[in-house]
Amino acid sequence: MADVNIVKFVTEWPNYLYIATAVVSGTMLVLPMVRRGAGGATVSAQEATLMMNRMDAVVLDVREQQEYQKGHIIHARNAPLSRLETQTGELQKLRTKPVIVACENGSQSGRAASMLRKQGFEKVHTLAGGLAAWRQAGLPVEK
Q: CATH class for domain 40-142?
């Protein structure tokens, strides 16, 4: 009897809208988590600051040089995403250090973190929200 009620509920017209709404909203909730997982561990601006101060973490800014020069996290190294695969040789000495990957808003850092992990980097984190979140937290930026 319960199976008949479920089938009747699903096949009635107004309920299609409810089901579609549930599926779409569920997808919208899960999608950011899936994307975030592909980039690996994320850290907030405050956590990144602690890692930099206590664990000597290195910040890699993967924005293009023009963007980097407009303002970046103090002591961050510029390693543009477009050239990251060719620069990994230069960055090999950082393989065992904690690395925080940053971009403008967090959209490119996940891809960069994945590239670095494939190159053997052990402790890679992405800065959640990127430089925008860093600025919003009131943390210093150098030009």
A: alpha beta
